[in-house]
Amino acid sequence: MKQEFVEKIKHNPDYIKLVKIRTQYAMRLTITMLVIYFIFILTIAFKPALLAATINETSVITIGIPIGIFVIVIAFVLTGLYTRRANSEFDDLTKKIKNSLVDENNE
Amino acid sequence: MNNKAFLFLILGSLGLLASGTIDGEITKQALNIPAIIMFVIFVGATLGITYWAAKRTKSPKDFYTAGGGITGLQNGMAIAGDYMSAASFLGISGLVYLKGYDGLIYSIGFLVGWPIILFMIAEPLRNLGKYSFADVASYRLRQAPIRILAAFGSIATVILYLIAQMVGSGKLIQLLFGLQYEVAVILVGVLMILYVTFGGMLATTWVQIIKAFLLLSGATFMAVMVMSHYNFSFEALFSDAVAIKGSAIMSPGGLIDDPISAISLAIALMFGTAGLPHILMRFFTVSDAKEARKSVFYATGFIGYFYMLTFIIGFGAIVMVYQNPEYLDLVKQAIDGGSPILGGNNMAAIHLSHAVGGDFFLGFISAVAFATILAVVSGLTLAGASAISHDLYASVIKGGDADHHKEMRVSKIATVVLGVVAIIMGIMFEKQNIAFVVGLAFAIAASANFPVLILSMYWSKLTTRGAVIGGSLGLATAVILVLLGPIVWVDILGNTEAIFPYKYPALFSVSMAFISIYLISKTDNSSAAKEERAKFEAQFIRSQTGIGAEGASEH
User: Fold this and answer.
1) Which residues of A touch B242 (CB under 8 A)?
2) Do A101 and B234 touch (CB under 8 A)?
3) Residue B551 pLDDT
4) Cα–Cα distance between A100 and A18 in angstroms, integer?
5) CA atoms within 13 A on the CB side of B416
6) Domain carrying residue B73
7) Nearest-CA distance from A57 to chain B in Å?
8) Rounded distance, CA B347 to CA B356, Å?
9) Does the pLDDT value for residue B12 go beyond 70?
10) Is A80 part of the contact surface with chain B (CB cutoff 8 Å)?
């Protein structure tokens, strides 16, 4: 990439905004996933008995099973949240940044 | 190669199948006719696709990335296909069958890397790279040393993975089709070479998509049949399973019992997934970052759904296969007691397919399992071949200025060589304990490939010296700790006590890589280092916006 483009984009308010909100959102989702997973796996390592409790007195189903399914579902939901926002909001900002380059070139 | 050679190879491989079925020693299973018919249909259809793809595979871009025209949904299915290997289908359902809840813990570990790949890696990878993840790692660093390191990490991961798949496939096919072990391994190797050399990424992707569809359909059918037996009541299914195997199967058992192992395994699975070359390569087959994101979204959905199915299938096998005299290994029972099933626990899903759908459905699932192996080894081989032809030959030896035809020829030769190596290794390792092989592949991916890749994307201070020395130290640490750990040092080499006490080295080897890359880059004051840091800004802008990125439309 040419240095003049770099200088232009670097100070483009849309670019600054894009990097900021995307980094923030990606970090927030990453931390959410890591925290959920590590709580799950460390519970298994330290206190497996917590997951062995049954969901009610008559059932054989332990709470570990719905919790495990929840971790799978949440992983899918988080990817969905990110993809939806990135494919609309982030891509719109990216398009604006690209257009600003084209406009200036045509002037 | 021309069409005549192609036809000759097709006929050759079919001949091999035929002669194998006639001459082959019939081992545990009698010849499985429906399975063979369905498998021949699958092979015929995929060779047809290969022929179609061969006509569209002209340039290196076509060969490595299917021309960049795969959609997000298709790529998501193909990524899921790469991930849903025969090992994970049979292995995880077998683990659930054996230990219940522990199987679920394992599959969750395999899944949670995917959101992280989406949030951190998918977009910059697509925006910066062309054919392989080494493109990204070497974007602003010195080409030769980084490419050599990345190619070495890729080839090591690919070969270890191939060994595991080949040995697994030989045993599985021997059992399912009554073919000889060697015949099965050679058949897999020959078909894989055909798909990859002639059809490149386009054929490999479609083989993977078809197989993923067949596998998901078959697994869904099995899970639905199990649940319908219990009027779709999980309570009833689990009650029956507990009545047979005891309540321990409903809660965490001995899979993970100390915190170091728990964290180490989590790191290996999460970061390892993000460092597997055959998975990373798939992000270059889509047109832009938007499709790359969609790919991960769909892939995570398919993989998560698949793991829920394997959980039901494992429990289904407990109630329908365990203690069912039809599937009992009487010889083994007479020696060891208990109720061992034919072919071992990993065959639980295969026997269940017979229990719910009879001979015909058993044939279908057997053919799908075989197709799964073929598709996964093809993807692996293509990734290994691209490391050789694109990273080593075109970028290092030819300094990025290779003739397209020659690069294509090198990649095809590399495919044949990898195929032959896989066949030889598959036969050599037949009787070896290969339990450590996939773990080692993940450890190398997590400790060598991943740290270099992620830091090259996000850390402006990274230098060539830091990446090469730190990445190599991570790689060496992973290999050494696996060799000194309980699986190789005790179980295989027969020593009484392991020098390194943990099965999973990732916590130590990944830390080693990150810390040494950090320290060496930080203290690197060479003029080359200053230049490399100065180039970060432009790289970061491209990684964030995709401006200047390699697109399908460019071609």
Assistant:
1) 60
2) no
3) 55
4) 14
5) 9
6) 3-435
7) 12
8) 14
9) no
10) yes
If one counts the domains in chain B, the total is 1
CATH of the domain at B30: 1.20.1730.10
Q: Domain for residue B78, yes or no?
A: yes
Domain assignment present for residue B417? The answer is yes
- Within the 272-291 window of chain B, which residues sit less than 8 Å (CB to CB) from chain A? 289-290
**Percent of chain B at pLDDT exceeding 70:** 92
Q: What is the mean pLDDT of residues B273-289?
A: 93
- Asked if residue B50 belongs to a domain, the reply is yes
Per DSSP, helices labelled H in B275-340 are 277-280, 289-320, 330-336
Cβ contacts of A99 within 8 Å, gap of 6 or more = none
Q: Do B406 and B253 touch, CB atoms closer than 8 A? A: no
Q: Which residue has the tokens 């005891």?
A: B246
Q: A86 vs B293: CB contact, 8 Å cut-off?
A: yes
**Confidence class of residue B23 from pLDDT cuts 50, 70 and 90?**
very low
Helices within B179-329 (DSSP H only): 181-229, 234-245, 259-273, 277-280, 289-320
pLDDT tens figures, B302-335: 999 999 999 999 999 999 998 888 888 888 888 8
Assess if residue B448 is contained within a domain.
no
Optimal mutation site among B75, B108, B307, interface A, most CBs of chain A within 10 A: B108
In DSSP terms, B286 is beta-bridged to: B70
Q: Tell me phi and psi for residue B415, to 5 degrees.
A: -60, -45
The answer to whether the Cβ–Cβ distance between B304 and A98 falls below 8 Å is no
Rounded Cα distance between B383 and A62, Å, is 42
Contact flag B101-A68 (C-beta cutoff 8 Å): yes
